[in-house]
Amino acid sequence: MKGSHDALSSDIRRLIKWFPDHKSAVLKLKAFEKKLPKTNIEEETSKRKITVEKKSAKKPRIEATEADESSLDEQEESQASGSDDLLNRPYEKVLEQIKAVQMDDTAAFINPLYWGVIDLRQAKISPSPFLLRGKELLPQQEYERLCSLMGNIVEEESHLNDSSAGFLEAIEISGNKSIGDLGMRFRANGTAGIGNLIREGNQKAKALLRNFNEFDEDTQYIAECFSAIARWLKDFNGDTHSERNVDGFALLQLAKVPGARFDYGENHSQADKEEKESRSNLARIGKPCDYLFRSGHQEIGCGENSGPKCKDSMDKANTDFIDVVKVARSQHIAFLTECTETSGLDPLSTIVQDACELIVIPFFQLIGYRIRFYILLQVSGELYAIWQWGSELLPTHDDHVKKLLSVCKLFFLYRNLLARVQRLGTAAIDKAKGRLQWNSVVLERKAKIQISGLIEKERCE
């Protein structure tokens, strides 16, 4: 009888309350077991892993002993812990590195990991070429998954209308190698003047301009960029030690891509201010950015000019890089806060969490004359990742026509990513507003990676 008791103890523990003694329960269970058809244990176990058990409408209430309640509590805690372990497993090394980095307060100025942001850039790329990359911290499969996810987002937004796309390609193959000549044609005859110039004697360029529309805003933007950069090259010969000269005569015009609304000139980020105040009892000031992109009251992107080459350029570049990463992170957190306030749910429901995870924040940084474009993605909870999707040198010579065309394309794509933030941010907030229609059905909450101590950081900012 002892052997039977050992083998069936878990089932007997559930049945013992319904029988006068232990022996009766064992005999009843064994008799019942003989009547069951024999099954493949492994197959049944596998099925149970993916089958959702449905609760019956009513069940008799069984009074449990204190020992039973304790056992059930331990089982639930074990299952919850197992779920968290499963979630964190690909990021164990990342979380360990974050804890190690946060032991050094100076890392707050130079290392995105201090703020829970994984750097998915390639190794040895500036700024901060010496920092650990995601490839060294993540399993290969997870690293490739995140890079592929971000790459797909950028690819989906890589589109232009027929007029501007044809205009870019026609200029590239036309043989015109002078930014100054193209800029002069624009100032004399407008966008149509450049179109007429590249049509002359070039049948391929003429064919590409079959959808050319001189009144299209994107097409006009390309022509205006040639005029602005031609003036930049004429006045400064593509070289200056003044950050504001680069902004005023080059970058500011390039950033004025149609559809992108921004505030220029060391404006303090409201999103960063609110994020800081959420973990501090003191009034805080948001990070200043040269370019803060907006959609209504919501910040949806940022950019920073770290200045042309000079003795302190690289130090400033490293700290500016962390600043724009932090601002982009704060801008995403602002969407989460908006959804929480709108829905009244904390944590957010799965449907709203999933909608917010689709939002990626684009940002850029100019160091010297090289501009780099990034996106920031929420991986899970407080854990984020950044990925560089574009890089190009600003034109510094009159024959850098292809470089200028490349920069225009990058800003078009940046504009499209901003529009994506606006579109998906609105969708997430709308789902939060509609909570009364679905919160009785969707009760699940997603487990999220939490970075211990991150929200308590008040120093080193």
Task: Report on this structure.
- A seven-stranded mixed sheet has the order 1-7-6-5-4-3-2, with helices on both faces.
- Helices cover 54% and strands 12% of the residues.
- It has 17 helices and seven strands.
- The termini are far apart.
- Residues 1-8, 38-73, 76-86, 436-444 and 454-459 have low confidence and may be disordered.
- With 461 residues, the protein is of the alpha/beta class.
- The chain has helices at 2-15, 22-35, 41-50, 66-88, 92-101, 134-137, 140-156, 162-173, 179-199, 203-208, 217-236, 243-255, 270-277, 313-343, 350-357, 401-433, 435-438; strands spanning 117-119, 262-268, 288-295, 298-305, 360-367, 370-380, 383-393.
- The radius of gyration is 30 Å and the shape is elongated.
Average the pLDDT over all residues and give the rounded result.
82
Stretches where pLDDT is under 50 for at least 5 consecutive residues are 1-8, 38-73, 76-86, 436-444, 454-459
Number of helices: 17
Assembly state of the chains shown: single chain
Question: Largest beta sheet: what is the strand line-up?
Answer: 1-7-6-5-4-3-2
Shape descriptor reads elongated
Question: From the alpha-carbon coordinates, what is the Rg to the nearest angstrom?
Answer: 30 Å
Question: Helix/strand/pairing class, anyone?
Answer: alpha/beta
Biggest sheet, open or closed, and with what strands and sense? 7 strands, mixed
Share of β-strand residues: 5-15%
Question: Termini distance?
Answer: 69 Å
What is the H/E order?
Answer: HHHHHEHHHHHHHEHEEHHEEEHH
The counted number of beta strands is 7
The percent of residues in helical segments reads 40-55%
